[in-house]
Write a structure and sequence with these properties.
- The protein has 754 residues and is α/β, with parallel strands linked by helices.
- It has three domains: 26-226, Glycerol-3-phosphate (1)-acyltransferase, CATH 3.40.1130; 237-637, Rossmann fold (3-Layer(aba) Sandwich); 651-752, 2-Layer Sandwich (GMP Synthetase, Chain A, domain 3).
- It is built from 24 helices and 35 strands.
- The strands form eight sheets. A seven-stranded mixed sheet has the order 1-9-6-2-5-3-4, sandwiched between helices. It has a seven-stranded mixed sheet with strand order 15-14-12-13-16-17-27, with helices on both faces.
Length: 754
């Protein structure tokens, strides 16, 4: 009995002590819970943990992506944190006890001035006592992991005469990992890998005078900085595909519109065989393998094969014409271009010495090689297999993934180097924002030599397993519409020009499977959006990107995903940056960051920023500055964080989604005319069919527009670069600035007045 009594007393004391700790030290309890989670199913990566002071008043300002944000922030603070939560959130019954337990401070409705005054007084009192407060200035949980508008700055919360440390915090990689909202319902999703990776980035103290807009920008920048480097669970594109193919060998990721389907196991076998053949070729020192093929399952296997050979695919832009494309390839040091005789005949190109034909490779594959590839893929464990397939690149995400060619304002195609890290960072953000579902299907209508085509229509399916149906020619409107109908496509991406053609060919019932339509490269015209809305009931979602940024930067999706695909916020805007991507606008002259609604040069910071331009360090330095990529576009950002393009700093037009340099057109006309003096000036104006059209202003009376156009065709210039004869306009003199340079603003005004 004696020992029973002692045991009972000890148990009672333990229970009493536990209850005492539970109610008096809730932050200890939270730390214990987080410690258990971090050593089981969660990998919380904390960056800048030493930035939270161990003493003195502290105000933490954080984004808000889930109900466990409170748990995460409390776990990284050395002292108890009191959270300020909106009154509407506190009324949520399932979490009411948790909020009471944590002693949260209720943020009243702004329309109740007396209640707001009491809230400010209570917050100031807490800070005077040297406490730690946490504010979620968005006033609610983000619908897709991105930042919403910050409702206020921190100045009203701060007591006069007290030095308060204001600490910005960004919670990243959480949204979409364990739960998400899809079509209005909260859904749990099994994590792809364990432990689940989260990032929590704690910044240096900021000024207490920062506005709500400036605070939002600082936390956005923290997000970009946190995801600049590789993530713990990250693998290259080809490795992700191989790991998934081993797990689900009978799944089909890539289809051809004609019905051809290749299982992931078959695709892996094809790619493995191709990789051995590619290794036997004399690639040269560059390590690049040119790829010249239209969208098809063969192209997908070819891209994977090049990657498994530890080489880098360089996708040739065949729309630029043979001379321009091959010249760009040679400047990049590409000594081998993989293509097919059949496709070359369709293009009307002559065979070049660099070309190796897939028909010849296919004939050289023996039955023994096929059997060895099948057995190796069947028998080897997953991670051993990928190491055998790609010894140098299997787990190196900093390695270059692709070389894409982009035309800049000079007209010379630039070779853009994108790493697996660049692509992965963009894809993970895209994945979260579109609220991806296992029922989604993509139509592969954009050529893979476009960054969007490569990222969304090749890399994204490879990593996620999203079925993708390839259409050889994006101009084949009937073929695209047929593919949407037959394969129940849910996600469509296209330029406004392509969409306009699709609308003409489609009936409403043929597009009924679509849930999300994204456009870019050209300005979306309101009348086109209205036509598509009338046909499908969906909004066309406008976005922004460029090859150098992997390519997606912003998408104009409403942050409330309850209306995803049926509502677009801020018409005319290119949207808000994807999670982990920071956009700022700077003064063109001083480089200082500008405030809301002030136009300036648009710059982007994130893990999506390219490695650089191949063999062009000078041009790379011109656009990459202090971790930012200068887009060359003039833009403004409103208080809600939505970006608007207001102009272009560089001289080019986007026609049919392609960049057409004005200066190169001017130079060609001067060459044809045999004149050194400036007598023509090229600009652009809006066009209902192709986004923009070229306008040529000229001064000499002897210039024959029809003859010039015919001569430009004889010079084998790309068709998009050749203006129409009726778009030549004679004027008395070209508008010039005092410096002697063209007055581009006046030139554009003249074109718009036509």
């Amino acid at each position: 009995m004696h020992w029973d009594f002692i045991l009972a007393v000890l148990l009672s004391l333990a229970v009493a002590l536990g209850l005492l700790i539970f109610f008096l030290k809730p932050h200890w309890v939270l730390k214990i819970i987080v410690w258990i989670l971090r050593h089981t199913v969660v990998n919380l990566r904390v960056i800048g943990g030493a930035n939270i002071p161990e003493s003195g008043p502290v105000l933490i300002v954080s984004n808000h992506v889930s109900l466990i944000d409170l748990l995460l922030i409390q776990s990284i603070s050395p002292r108890p944190v009191r959270f300020m939560i909106q009154q509407e959130v506190l009324e949520f019954v399932p979490t009411r006890f948790i909020f009471w337990y944590l002693g949260v401070i209720k943020v009243p409705n702004l329309r109740r001035p007396k209640a707001m005054q009491r809230f400010f007084e209570r917050s100031r009192a807490e800070l005077r006592r040297g406490g730690v407060l946490c504010l979620f200035p968005e006033g609610g949980i983000s619908g897709n992991g991105g930042l919403m508008r910050f409702k206020s700055g921190v100045a009203p919360l701060l007591p006069a005469g007290v030095q308060v440390s204001v600490i910005p915090v960004r919670i990243g990689m959480l949204w979409g990992r364990l739960f998400r909202i899809f079509r209005g319902k909260l859904k749990y999703q099994k994590p792809r890998t364990l432990p689940v990776q989260f990032n929590l980035n704690i910044g240096d103290p900021v000024s207490t005078e920062l506005s709500a807009f400036q605070l939002r920008q600082r936390i956005s920048e923290l997000g970009a900085e946190a995801e600049m480097g590789p993530q713990p669970d990250e693998v290259p594109i080809h490795t992700a595909f191989a790991l998934r193919a081993k797990r689900r060998p009978f799944a089909v990721t890539y289809y051809d519109a004609d019905g051809t389907r290749v299982t992931d196991f078959e695709m892996l076998v094809r790619a493995a065989i191709l990789s051995k053949k590619i290794r036997s070729l004399d690639i040269g020192e560059s390590g690049y393998v040119g790829v010249l093929m239209p969208n098809c399952t063969v192209l997908a296997s070819l891209m994977l094969g090049v990657m498994y050979s530890d080489r880098t695919p360089a996708v040739i832009n065949f729309s630029a014409g043979a001379d321009v494309a091959l010249e760009a390839a040679r400047r990049a040091g590409i000594s081998v271009i993989l293509t097919s005789r059949r496709f070359l005949a369709k293009l009307g190109w002559e065979a070049a010495p660099e070309m190796v034909f897939l028909e010849d490779i296919a004939k050289s594959v023996t039955k023994r090689e096929k059997k060895r590839a099948v057995l190796r893929i069947l028998l080897l464990p997953r991670r051993m297999l990928v190491r055998r397939l790609a010894p140098l690149s299997a787990f190196n995400v900093q390695r270059q993934a692709v070389l894409l060619f982009s035309s800049g304002s000079t007209g010379r195609p630039k070779a853009v180097m994108l790493t697996h890290r660049n692509i992965n960072c963009d894809l993970w953000a895209f994945w979260r924002v579109i609220v991806w579902s296992r029922t989604d299907r993509i139509v592969g209508n954009l050529p893979l030599f476009h960054a969007y085509g490569f990222t969304v229509e090749f890399a994204f399916p490879a990593m996620s397993g999203t079925p993708t149906v390839y259409v050889v020619n994006p101009l084949d409107s009937a073929g695209v519409v047929k593919a949407i109908e037959e394969f129940n496509i849910t996600i469509l991406t296209a330029t406004p020009t392509f969409l306009q053609n699709y609308i003409r060919k489609a009936k409403p019932e043929q597009l009924r499977s679509l849930r999300l339509v994204i456009t870019g490269a050209e300005k979306l015209r309101p009348e086109l959006a209205a036509k598509f809305r009338a046909l499908t009931g969906l909004e066309i979602i406008e976005g922004y990107g460029c090859t150098e940024l992997s390519p997606i930067v912003t998408i104009n999706l409403c942050n409330s995903i309850f209306q995803l695909g049926r509502h677009a916020d801020h018409p005319g805007s290119i949207g808000t940056p994807l999670p982990g991507i920071h956009v700022r606008v700077v003064d063109p002259d001083t480089g200082f960051e500008l405030g809301p609604d002030q136009p300036g040069r648009m710059q982007v910071k994130s893990g999506i920023v390219m490695k650089g331009y191949l063999n062009d360090p000078e041009q790379t330095r011109n656009v990459l500055r202090n971790g930012y990529y200068d887009t060359g576009d003039i833009a403004r950002i409103d208080q809600d964080g939505y970006v608007y393009i207001t102009g272009r700093a560089s001289r080019f037009s986007k026609i049919g989604g392609e960049m057409v340099p004005h200066e190169l057109v001017e130079q060609m006309i001067a060459k044809i005319r045999g004149r050194e003096e400036r007598e023509v000036a090229v600009t652009g104006r809006g066009d209902a069919k192709r986004g923009e059209r070229l306008v040529v202003f000229y001064t000499p009376g002897d210039l024959d527009p029809a003859a010039v156009v015919e001569a430009m065709r004889g010079e084998k210039m790309p068709n998009l670069w050749i203006p129409k004869a009726e778009d030549f306009v004679k004027i008395d003199h070209l508008p010039l600035l005092g410096s002697g340079k063209l007055d581009l603003k006046k030139l554009k005004q003249l074109a718009d007045e036509l």
